[in-house]
Amino acid sequence: MDNKRDFTRGNILIKMIRFMVPILGALILQAMYGAVDLLIVGQFGTTAGISGVSTGSNIINMVTFTISGLAMGVTVLIGRYLGEGRGERVGRVIGGVISFFLMLAAVMMVVLLVFARPVAVLMQAPAQALDLTVLYIRICGGGIVFVIAYNVISSIFRGIGNSRLPLLFVAIACVVNIIGDLVLVAGLHMNVAGAAIATIAAQAVSVVLSLVIIRRQELPFTLTMRDIGFSGEVKKFLVLGAPLAFQELLTNLSFLALCAFINRIGLEASSGYGIGQKVQSFVMLIPSSIMQSMSSFVAQNVGAGKEDRARRAMKCGIGIGAGVGVFVFCLIFFEGGAISSLFTDNEAVILRAAEFLRGFAPEAVVTSILFSFYGYFNGHSRSFFVMVQGLAQSLLIRLPMSYLMSIRSDVSLTWVGLAAPTSTVFGIMLCLIYYYKMNHEKQNRVGKRIQDPE
After folding, report:
1. pTM of this prediction?
2. What pLDDT score was predicted for residue 444?
3. Torsion over CA of 202, 208, 213 and 216, rounded to 10 degrees?
């Protein structure tokens, strides 16, 4: 590896920021997909269209984030091999990735096309928005292979320490998506259908151009036709990624349940929550970029046997995230209504969105701490614990609290939004306990080796 992609030496803060900034940029552009769809549908479509895009995108996001969690196993495995100096094994990993995710994409396409309406009904989509929700899910489901391909390609490059190319790929997609929304929704008034077509077309263009760009890159691995297939490397990245994927699935199921709770309140609450969620997706960008960069950073150092450097990287990530999080908290707590007004001029919908954001605001700070722990544990291949604590957060705190707040006679989305940071604080407590337990066990093992070198 060249010096820029070698995280086992050099200044931690500088190297982490250099690696994290392109990841953050890619996540910002990726978040703009849904935001632009909702913004243009809100301005040129209908209120029912806002609800349809909001509920439908929740379904697609669940699939996307679950795939992203599974692909994190690829990132960690590649980073580990490079840290150990076994770069020759990366080609076999990628060959297995191609085979597995192509099969998974075919299955997901069939599921989304066939079960779009039952899922929309289960989500309690408002009657006025039911058909639009189904339409959005089916169009995106038909092109899910491009969504999966983008996430897998990005995970491979983050694994080899290159976060700039994923930024370029998503920048291409974002530009295409904006143009598509303006033409199909604002120009041709296709409402929800136009937004969905623009999203999938943008992903398709991004994937095709990324493959062209990749062929011209000098890569630290070789890939041959013999590498493509279900080798033993598939099991290895699935063991690492499956718990993360399951955690993402459970987390997004909890968000789907929350969406269903709010959909029962009415169309204005559903649309307001949809806008609040799009703002929320931007709030989560710093924590998500920290987690993704931390996973690669820690994996390399663990492979090189530099545990102390891995711990210092985690603390550095916590400091960066919490510092930025305070600013973001103040912005959405005090100016949530102004931000929400960018998406619609419906005062009732803006009020509901601002309500939700006031409760959600503390998440900007606490999630940065939690996701730094996530990246540290993922880099150590401790993804099973990450899954378990995510499950505990959702089932013990977030879902019960969201449901209880949503059924109150004087329901306010502020209290519903507060369920997220409350569950995150609980997750941090679990992570602290596990962190000290894990390091205590390592110290004991080192002590035993010193006492008994035989």
Report:
1. 0.68
2. 67
3. 180
Distance CA 105, CA 357 (A): 34
The rounded distance, in Å, linking the Cα atoms of 416 and 410 is: 12
9 to 153, 177, 304: CA distances (angstroms): 26, 39, 10
Predicted confidence (pLDDT) per residue in 124-178, tens digit: 777 888 899 999 999 999 999 998 998 888 888 877 777 778 778 888 888 898 8
Residue found under tokens 């309690």: 124
Residues 6+ apart with CB under 8 A from 210: 150, 153, 165, 168, 169, 172
The residue written with tokens 């035989």 in the block is: 454
> Quick one: DSSP state of residue 129?
G
Distance of alpha carbon 273 from alpha carbon 267, whole angstroms: 10
Q: What is the mean pLDDT of residues 76-88?
A: 76
Query: Six-digit token pair at 76?
Result: 């960690």
Give the closest residue to 437 by CA, choosing from 359, 387, 382, 392.
382
Q: Alpha-carbon distance 169 to 151, whole Å?
A: 10
Distance CA 397, CA 251 (A): 12
Residue 383 identity (one-letter amino acid): S
13: left (phi over 0), alpha (psi -120 to 50) or beta: alpha
CB 242 within 8 A of CB 70: yes
> CB under 8 Å, gap of 24 or more: what pairs does 252-257 form?
252/58, 252/61, 252/62, 252/65, 252/66, 253/62, 253/394, 254/394, 254/398, 254/399, 254/402, 255/58, 255/62, 256/58, 256/59, 256/62, 256/123, 257/399, 257/402, 257/403
Residues 371 and 289: their CA atoms lie apart, in Å, by 9
* Whole-number pLDDT of residue 92: 81
CA gap 298, 307 in Å, rounded: 8
The one-letter amino acid code at 415 reads W
